[in-house]
Amino acid sequence: MLNETPLIKFIALITFDRDYASMSAHIVALQKEITLLHAQENELDATITVSDSGIRSMKKEIDADELLIASLDQQIKEKKERLAAAMNPREHRAIMSEIDSINTQQLAAEERLLNSWTALETRKRGHDKLLLANQEQKQRIATAIAEKQQQMADEITTQATTAARRASYEQGVPEQWLEKYAAMRSRVPNPVVPIEQDSCSACFHGLSHQELVQLRRRALLECKSCYRFLYCPIAHQL
After folding, report:
1. Beta-ladder partners of 229
2. Sign of the torsion angle spanned by Cα atoms 24, 29, 30, 34
3. Which of 49, 138, 163, 207 is most buried, judging by how many CB atoms fall within 10 Å of its CB?
């Protein structure tokens, strides 16, 4: 600790900031996952709404056919009363033709009604199964949401505690480095990189002899190409 060079302390600060940023990213990811889970809940609710709507539509069709059949029954009754009072064969035949036509309509409506009732019963059974499946899925989703919300709350608490320690990581780091770091930390994920083969290991910009000498004397230089901080690992025994 006491023998740590300013560069080692600087790298520790950068590592601290990366870990803090990872926590922030994890919190954002958890929030997105929670939002996605809520969307899945809404989709499940929507399937029930669509199923309910379909059942209501089928019931309306059944009600309409039942009313139609009742109306046709009344029409047949009235026609038969007229038939009994018919004065001549021609009138009798006309009324019978009307009754036949109404009977045809009534048979079609009754057949349609029977099919509708069968379809409705099938639809209701499917709806009941859908309700059960949705309830199970929503319970699993609710459990997952609760777990992720707890994870997020824990992460936020940890992050708040961690943030309070940052100032201690800045101690022993030259102010000039801190100022430059503050200016570039939002631009690149790795603002401090080692040199490799006499070049910047990030952008591969070649270094001059004078720059290499400075780096080997434990200096911290700025890359003239990508503006990252450069250091010599051997000089700092890293």
Report:
1. 192, 222
2. positive
3. 207
Closest CA to 54 of 127, 135, 163: 127
Dist. CA 99–CA 105, nearest whole Å: 10
Contacts of 21 (CB under 8 A, 6+ apart): none
Q: Which CATH class is domain 6-168?
A: mainly alpha
What are the sequence ranges of the domains in the chain? 6-168, 174-231
Contact partners, residue 184, CB within 8 Å, separation at least 6:
191, 227, 228
Residues with Cβ within 8 Å of 120's Cβ and at least 6 positions away in sequence, in order, are 55, 58, 59, 62
For residue range 202-228, list pLDDT tens digits in order. 999 999 999 999 999 888 899 999 989
pLDDT digits (tens, 9 = 90+) for 23-76: 999 999 999 999 999 999 999 999 999 999 999 999 999 999 999 999 999 999
Name beta bridge partners: 196.
199
